[in-house]
Design goal:
Length: about 60
């Protein structure tokens, strides 16, 4: 975490950060669909993140 980052303390905050990250990547031409390995060294857990595009419904903003 850099000094400018605010710690995440809720799932809602995590969701907002993920949404912003994916939107920035998409707007810059990256294909964000697929699987991503997140390796974090020996002191932290590793994660496998899978991103899929979902169909919008009428109430989507």
């Amino acid at each position: 975490m850099t000094p400018a980052e605010t710690p995440l303390t809720s799932k809602a905050e995590l969701n907002a950060e993920l949404k912003a990250l994916l939107l920035r990547a998409y707007e810059n031409g990256l294909d964000v669909k697929g699987a991503f390995e997140c390796r974090n060294g020996v002191d932290h857990p590793d994660w496998d993140v899978v991103v899929t595009e979902v169909e919008k419904n009428e109430s989507s903003e």
